Amino acid sequence: MKVFITKKIPQAGIDTLKEAGFEISVHDESDKLSQQELIKACQDVDLLLNVGQGKLDSTFFSACSHLKGIALTSVGYDHVNLDAATKAGVPVSNTPDVLSDATADIAFLLMLAVSRKAFFRANQVLNGAWADFEFTKDLGIELYGKTLGIFGLGRIGLSLARKAQAAYGMNIIYHNRSRNTEAEKLVEATYVNFDTLLKESDVLSVHTNLTPETQHRFNAQAFQRMKDSAIFINTARGKIHHEMDLTEALRTGEIWGAGLDVTDPEPMQADNPLLKMSSVCVFPHIGSATIETRTQMAILASNNLIAVLKGNKMPQVVNA
Ligand code: DGY
Q: I want to staple 149 with a disulfide (CB 3.0 to 4.6 A). Which of 24, 204, 236, 316 is the partner?
């Protein structure tokens, strides 16, 4: 079987596919693939390994219904029209679990960096603005014993909760569509309604999928209900918060700080007002960007394609 890979992946993924006997072609990532080019490249292959967030919409699936499977290299699949995939009879798989700790590390890093204005402070040094020792200016806030609110206590949220509890003895509250009783036991998390999550969190971290229900859930009304000392963290999807409302909430002091690994749109433009704020840190969507995690993701995606080769169901299929 032939596989088309949309961007370079770690060698371990290529080796896994080659050992299984696949014929592979990898797109040169310096040249951005348009939808037409992707559709063209898929015409004479059986399988697609879709790296990154390139959209797979109904146009794609009507042109590529011959594909026997698509392996994504992400846990999120909001960039894929799953109804169209199912209608076309194309199974799609994702890469859950293997990126949970790495993504939670980025949430933890943002939480700490925002709380101590780390990037603003580092930039002062970089820009030659390291002033005399000032006792009361631009102070951070501490995390010890504070309340961490998690919106979406799944694998990534749980990993963050464990770190926050071990490092800072944080009290964990969470809001999900349904209760996660196993996680409640592991981190002594308390289930609360959305309003309580907003009102009681000192740090509120988002770990949910982007769906019509979660889109812009963190908007002006939500930020108004949060503590003025609160830090908002989003490492899930940029559309879950409303960026203009977030900017305004920070500007007016409705909340204290924000750490984002995801924005809407991506990439964020360098002149974005959020980047000028002292208690804001923004990363370029690097939750899973470690050698170990990206290697595991490539192997997992490859194994899903191997399952198709063997006539089996993809283990991580999301449109079963
Ligand atoms: C994921 O796996 O969903 C990450 O956000 C990368 O897209």
A: 204
